[in-house]
Design a protein that fits this description.
This is Alpha/beta hydrolase. Helices cover 41% and strands 16% of the residues. By secondary structure, the chain is of the alpha/beta class. Strands 1-3-2-4-5-6-7 form a 7-stranded mixed β-sheet, with helices on both faces. The chain is globular and about 45 Å long.
Protein backbone atom coordinates (compact mmCIF):
# COMPACT_ATOMS: atom_id res chain seq x y z
CA UNK A 1 0.00 0.00 0.00
CA UNK A 2 2.85 2.34 -0.76
CA UNK A 3 1.43 4.23 -3.74
CA UNK A 4 -0.80 6.63 -1.83
CA UNK A 5 -3.48 8.67 -3.49
CA UNK A 6 -3.58 11.68 -1.18
CA UNK A 7 -5.13 15.13 -1.52
CA UNK A 8 -4.34 17.85 1.01
CA UNK A 9 -2.03 18.18 4.00
CA UNK A 10 -4.44 19.50 6.61
CA UNK A 11 -4.69 18.46 10.27
CA UNK A 12 -7.98 16.53 9.96
CA UNK A 13 -7.31 13.04 8.60
CA UNK A 14 -9.85 11.30 6.38
CA UNK A 15 -9.68 7.81 4.86
CA UNK A 16 -11.96 7.23 1.85
CA UNK A 17 -13.27 3.70 1.14
CA UNK A 18 -14.58 3.14 -2.40
CA UNK A 19 -17.45 0.96 -3.51
CA UNK A 20 -17.97 -1.92 -5.92
CA UNK A 21 -17.71 0.18 -9.11
CA UNK A 22 -14.95 2.48 -7.87
CA UNK A 23 -11.28 2.62 -6.99
CA UNK A 24 -8.97 5.10 -5.28
CA UNK A 25 -8.75 7.41 -8.28
CA UNK A 26 -12.41 7.19 -9.29
CA UNK A 27 -14.04 9.70 -6.93
CA UNK A 28 -14.78 11.94 -9.89
CA UNK A 29 -14.87 15.74 -9.97
CA UNK A 30 -15.65 15.82 -6.24
CA UNK A 31 -11.94 15.50 -5.45
CA UNK A 32 -11.19 18.96 -6.86
CA UNK A 33 -13.88 20.38 -4.53
CA UNK A 34 -12.27 19.13 -1.29
CA UNK A 35 -10.71 21.44 1.30
CA UNK A 36 -7.00 20.67 1.12
CA UNK A 37 -5.95 23.16 3.81
CA UNK A 38 -8.13 21.71 6.57
CA UNK A 39 -8.07 18.03 5.60
CA UNK A 40 -5.66 15.30 4.57
CA UNK A 41 -7.72 13.02 2.32
CA UNK A 42 -6.34 9.57 1.50
CA UNK A 43 -8.11 7.20 -0.90
CA UNK A 44 -7.60 3.45 -0.59
CA UNK A 45 -7.69 0.74 -3.27
CA UNK A 46 -9.13 -2.59 -2.19
CA UNK A 47 -7.20 -5.68 -3.22
CA UNK A 48 -7.93 -6.44 -6.85
CA UNK A 49 -8.66 -2.77 -7.63
CA UNK A 50 -6.73 0.20 -9.03
CA UNK A 51 -3.07 0.32 -8.04
CA UNK A 52 -3.60 -2.89 -6.06
CA UNK A 53 -5.26 -4.75 -8.91
CA UNK A 54 -2.64 -7.48 -8.89
CA UNK A 55 -2.50 -7.88 -5.09
CA UNK A 56 -4.04 -11.25 -4.16
CA UNK A 57 -6.54 -11.55 -1.35
CA UNK A 58 -9.70 -13.07 0.05
CA UNK A 59 -11.76 -10.00 -0.94
CA UNK A 60 -13.94 -10.11 2.17
CA UNK A 61 -15.02 -7.53 4.74
CA UNK A 62 -12.47 -8.54 7.36
CA UNK A 63 -9.61 -8.19 4.92
CA UNK A 64 -10.94 -4.83 3.77
CA UNK A 65 -11.02 -3.56 7.35
CA UNK A 66 -7.58 -4.97 8.10
CA UNK A 67 -6.12 -3.27 5.03
CA UNK A 68 -7.75 0.06 5.88
CA UNK A 69 -6.44 -0.03 9.44
CA UNK A 70 -3.00 -1.05 8.17
CA UNK A 71 -2.99 1.96 5.84
CA UNK A 72 -3.89 4.23 8.76
CA UNK A 73 -0.98 2.69 10.70
CA UNK A 74 1.33 3.32 7.75
CA UNK A 75 0.22 6.96 7.73
CA UNK A 76 0.75 7.27 11.47
CA UNK A 77 -2.91 8.11 12.08
CA UNK A 78 -3.99 7.16 15.60
CA UNK A 79 -7.44 8.63 14.98
CA UNK A 80 -9.15 9.60 11.75
CA UNK A 81 -12.48 10.00 10.01
CA UNK A 82 -13.82 7.64 7.38
CA UNK A 83 -15.92 8.32 4.28
CA UNK A 84 -17.28 5.13 2.74
CA UNK A 85 -19.28 4.48 -0.40
CA UNK A 86 -21.44 1.46 -1.16
CA UNK A 87 -19.76 -1.75 0.10
CA UNK A 88 -17.06 0.42 1.68
CA UNK A 89 -19.58 1.17 4.43
CA UNK A 90 -19.60 -2.49 5.43
CA UNK A 91 -15.81 -2.37 5.64
CA UNK A 92 -16.13 0.70 7.87
CA UNK A 93 -18.52 -1.20 10.15
CA UNK A 94 -15.99 -4.01 10.33
CA UNK A 95 -13.31 -1.46 11.26
CA UNK A 96 -15.56 -0.25 14.09
CA UNK A 97 -15.89 -3.77 15.41
CA UNK A 98 -12.11 -4.19 15.37
CA UNK A 99 -10.88 -0.76 16.49
CA UNK A 100 -13.80 1.49 17.55
CA UNK A 101 -11.55 3.98 19.33
CA UNK A 102 -9.75 4.95 16.12
CA UNK A 103 -12.67 6.34 14.09
CA UNK A 104 -13.42 9.95 15.02
CA UNK A 105 -16.60 10.16 12.91
CA UNK A 106 -17.73 8.63 9.65
CA UNK A 107 -19.88 9.30 6.63
CA UNK A 108 -21.63 6.55 4.66
CA UNK A 109 -22.56 7.47 1.07
CA UNK A 110 -25.26 5.32 -0.56
CA UNK A 111 -24.21 2.53 1.81
CA UNK A 112 -25.11 -1.12 1.46
CA UNK A 113 -27.41 -2.01 4.40
CA UNK A 114 -25.55 -3.45 7.42
CA UNK A 115 -27.19 -6.83 6.95
CA UNK A 116 -26.29 -6.85 3.25
CA UNK A 117 -28.34 -6.69 0.08
CA UNK A 118 -31.56 -8.66 0.18
CA UNK A 119 -32.00 -10.05 -3.32
CA UNK A 120 -34.17 -12.70 -4.87
CA UNK A 121 -32.37 -15.69 -6.35
CA UNK A 122 -33.05 -14.36 -9.84
CA UNK A 123 -31.75 -10.85 -9.03
CA UNK A 124 -28.71 -12.24 -7.27
CA UNK A 125 -27.82 -14.36 -10.29
CA UNK A 126 -28.34 -11.42 -12.64
CA UNK A 127 -26.27 -9.02 -10.53
CA UNK A 128 -23.49 -11.58 -10.15
CA UNK A 129 -23.10 -11.58 -13.93
CA UNK A 130 -21.81 -7.99 -13.66
CA UNK A 131 -18.44 -9.47 -12.67
CA UNK A 132 -17.88 -10.66 -16.25
CA UNK A 133 -20.54 -8.98 -18.41
CA UNK A 134 -20.21 -5.28 -19.24
CA UNK A 135 -23.82 -4.99 -20.38
CA UNK A 136 -25.00 -6.08 -16.93
CA UNK A 137 -22.74 -3.49 -15.29
CA UNK A 138 -24.25 -0.86 -17.55
CA UNK A 139 -27.78 -1.93 -16.59
CA UNK A 140 -26.92 -1.73 -12.88
CA UNK A 141 -25.28 1.68 -13.27
CA UNK A 142 -28.32 2.94 -15.17
CA UNK A 143 -30.68 1.63 -12.47
CA UNK A 144 -28.48 3.04 -9.71
CA UNK A 145 -28.72 6.54 -11.19
CA UNK A 146 -32.46 6.55 -11.85
CA UNK A 147 -32.24 5.70 -15.56
CA UNK A 148 -31.82 9.39 -16.32
CA UNK A 149 -28.15 9.94 -17.24
CA UNK A 150 -26.49 10.05 -20.67
CA UNK A 151 -25.22 6.93 -22.39
CA UNK A 152 -21.62 8.18 -22.81
CA UNK A 153 -21.32 8.69 -19.04
CA UNK A 154 -22.64 5.17 -18.38
CA UNK A 155 -20.19 3.76 -20.89
CA UNK A 156 -17.33 5.68 -19.27
CA UNK A 157 -18.30 4.28 -15.87
CA UNK A 158 -18.48 0.74 -17.23
CA UNK A 159 -15.11 1.11 -18.95
CA UNK A 160 -13.29 2.44 -15.91
CA UNK A 161 -14.92 -0.19 -13.71
CA UNK A 162 -13.84 -3.05 -15.99
CA UNK A 163 -10.33 -1.68 -16.46
CA UNK A 164 -9.68 -0.93 -12.81
CA UNK A 165 -10.72 -4.22 -11.18
CA UNK A 166 -10.31 -7.92 -11.74
CA UNK A 167 -13.52 -9.80 -12.38
CA UNK A 168 -12.79 -12.15 -9.47
CA UNK A 169 -12.39 -9.24 -7.02
CA UNK A 170 -15.58 -7.58 -8.29
CA UNK A 171 -17.48 -10.84 -7.89
CA UNK A 172 -16.10 -11.49 -4.41
CA UNK A 173 -16.94 -8.01 -3.14
CA UNK A 174 -20.42 -8.35 -4.62
CA UNK A 175 -20.86 -11.54 -2.59
CA UNK A 176 -19.68 -9.63 0.49
CA UNK A 177 -22.57 -7.22 -0.16
CA UNK A 178 -25.09 -10.05 -0.08
CA UNK A 179 -23.67 -12.09 2.81
CA UNK A 180 -22.81 -9.45 5.39
CA UNK A 181 -22.57 -10.52 9.03
CA UNK A 182 -20.83 -7.39 10.18
CA UNK A 183 -23.86 -5.71 11.75
CA UNK A 184 -24.02 -8.15 14.63
CA UNK A 185 -20.30 -7.77 15.28
CA UNK A 186 -20.13 -3.98 15.27
CA UNK A 187 -22.61 -3.42 18.08
CA UNK A 188 -23.19 0.15 16.93
CA UNK A 189 -21.08 1.63 19.69
CA UNK A 190 -19.75 4.66 18.37
CA UNK A 191 -18.54 7.73 16.66
CA UNK A 192 -21.02 10.08 15.01
CA UNK A 193 -22.43 8.73 11.75
CA UNK A 194 -23.74 10.51 8.67
CA UNK A 195 -25.82 8.52 6.16
CA UNK A 196 -26.29 10.05 2.71
CA UNK A 197 -28.86 8.67 0.26
CA UNK A 198 -29.26 9.62 -3.38
CA UNK A 199 -32.67 10.94 -4.41
CA UNK A 200 -32.64 8.87 -7.61
CA UNK A 201 -30.78 5.78 -6.36
CA UNK A 202 -32.70 2.85 -7.82
CA UNK A 203 -30.51 0.25 -6.11
CA UNK A 204 -30.48 1.61 -2.57
CA UNK A 205 -33.40 4.06 -2.21
CA UNK A 206 -33.59 6.38 0.77
CA UNK A 207 -36.51 4.48 2.37
CA UNK A 208 -34.38 1.32 2.49
CA UNK A 209 -31.40 3.17 3.92
CA UNK A 210 -33.53 4.90 6.58
CA UNK A 211 -35.01 1.59 7.64
CA UNK A 212 -31.78 -0.41 7.62
CA UNK A 213 -29.31 2.12 9.03
CA UNK A 214 -31.42 4.18 11.42
CA UNK A 215 -32.88 1.10 13.11
CA UNK A 216 -29.41 0.34 14.45
CA UNK A 217 -28.15 3.89 14.80
CA UNK A 218 -31.13 6.22 15.47
CA UNK A 219 -28.87 9.18 16.25
CA UNK A 220 -27.26 9.14 12.81
CA UNK A 221 -27.53 12.28 10.69
CA UNK A 222 -29.54 11.22 7.63
CA UNK A 223 -29.74 13.31 4.48
CA UNK A 224 -31.06 12.81 0.96
CA UNK A 225 -28.84 14.30 -1.73
CA UNK A 226 -31.14 15.94 -4.28
CA UNK A 227 -30.54 15.37 -7.99
CA UNK A 228 -28.15 12.49 -7.23
CA UNK A 229 -28.36 8.74 -7.57
CA UNK A 230 -25.87 6.19 -6.32
CA UNK A 231 -22.81 8.16 -7.46
CA UNK A 232 -23.05 11.70 -6.04
CA UNK A 233 -19.28 12.08 -6.40
CA UNK A 234 -19.99 12.20 -10.14
CA UNK A 235 -23.54 13.57 -10.19
CA UNK A 236 -23.43 16.36 -7.56
CA UNK A 237 -19.75 16.64 -6.64
CA UNK A 238 -19.74 20.15 -5.15
CA UNK A 239 -22.70 19.42 -2.90
CA UNK A 240 -21.27 16.07 -1.78
CA UNK A 241 -17.89 17.53 -0.86
CA UNK A 242 -19.48 20.36 1.13
CA UNK A 243 -21.97 18.06 2.88
CA UNK A 244 -19.36 15.53 3.95
CA UNK A 245 -16.76 18.08 5.06
CA UNK A 246 -19.32 20.07 7.03
CA UNK A 247 -20.17 16.91 8.97
CA UNK A 248 -16.53 15.93 9.48
CA UNK A 249 -15.72 19.38 10.91
CA UNK A 250 -18.42 19.21 13.59
Amino acid sequence: MNQLNQVGQGPLKVLWLHGLFGHAQAWGPMVSCLNTALFSHVFIDWRGYGRRKQVPGRHDLTEMAEDALALADQLGWAQFAVVAHDVGALAALQMLSMAPQRLRRWSAIAPVPPSGLSLSAADSAFYANAATQSDVRRSLLDLATGQRLAGPWLEHMVRQSVESATSSAFGDYFRACTHSTVAAQAGWASPALQVLAGEFDGLLPDALLRRSWLSGHPDAQFEVLRNAGHFPMEETPVVLAATVERFLCA
